Amino acid sequence: MSIDNKLQRDVLIVDDDKNICEVLKEYCHNMGCFKNIVFANDGITATQKLRNQKFSLILLDMNMPKKSGLDLLNELDKNAINQRDSVVIVSGTLEKNVISKVLENGVKTFLVKPFDEASFQDRVLKVLAATTK
Asked: Can you give the pTM of this predicted structure?
């Protein structure tokens, strides 16, 4: 699956672990299809960024300070700028009840830490292909 690199997209990385943010930034950069890579290290900051900018991809950790990833998903419906179908859940642990709540919110793409660059790109390409149709 390939993606048009001429379409420059913005990605929001929402994770409180700075090392994970750096890895995700490198993976996104290596894909060559993102113009801006934006970070939010907590749920409150992510909410502000999601209100002000359209993102083609939102990489969302579930366990964060101030506001959880699930809280952010619940807010996306109210926010017409960004859609749930552009979200990839990136988390170290996913309990069954959290997975079912995420699925109820319309998000179907998950990456469980640790993951490699190939699995990251595979999931991201599927999301980008689905959202650019």
From this structure: 0.91
Give the C-alpha separation, 15 to 67, whole Å: 11
Q: Cβ of 38: how many Cβ atoms within 10 Å?
A: 18
Please give the single-letter amino acid code of residue 73. L
Q: Residue 71 belongs to what domain range? A: 9-131
- The domain that holds 127 is classified in CATH as 3.40.50.2300
Secondary structure of residue 67 in the 3-state scheme:
coil
Please report whether residue 1 resides in a domain: no
CA dist., res. 6 & res. 59, Å (int): 21
Q: Which of 52, 89, 83 is nearest to 68 (CA)?
A: 89
**What are the pLDDT digits (tens) for 74-117?**
888 765 689 888 999 998 877 888 888 888 888 989 998 889 99
Q: Give the pairing of strands 9-14 and 110-112.
A: unpaired
Tokens of 95: 């309990």
Give helix 43-52 / helix 69-76 axis angle, nearest 10°: 20
Would residue 99 count as lying in a domain?
A: yes
